[in-house]
TrEMBL record:
Lineage: Bacteria, Pseudomonadati, Pseudomonadota, Gammaproteobacteria, Enterobacterales
Region forming the signal peptide: none
Protein name: Type II toxin-antitoxin system HicB family antitoxin
CDD domains per UniProt: RHH_NikR_HicB-like
InterPro entries according to UniProt: Arc_rbn_hlx_hlx, HicB-like, Ribbon_hlx_hlx
Keyword Iron attached: no
Pfam families (UniProt xref): HicB_lk_antitox
Keywords in alphabetical order: Plasmid
Record carries keyword Iron-sulfur: no
Length: 55
């Protein structure tokens, strides 16, 4: 599988505020630390959103 950066087609990133339980944030942070596919927490959440919105 080839990874394609779609950021130039999706537009400029925008800052948003969300609230998540502490334990979920810790799980996300651990997933990011343990996987070089994710640059940071925001990248992880963007990928999760893309996965859920695929259609």
């Amino acid at each position: 599988m080839v990874e394609v950066d779609l950021s130039e087609f999706e537009g400029k990133p925008q800052r948003i505020n969300i609230s998540l339980p502490d334990t979920l944030i810790k799980r996300i942070d651990n997933a990011v630390k343990g996987n070089t596919s994710y640059r940071d927490r925001s990248h992880f959440l963007a990928e999760a959103a893309r996965h859920e919105l695929k259609g």
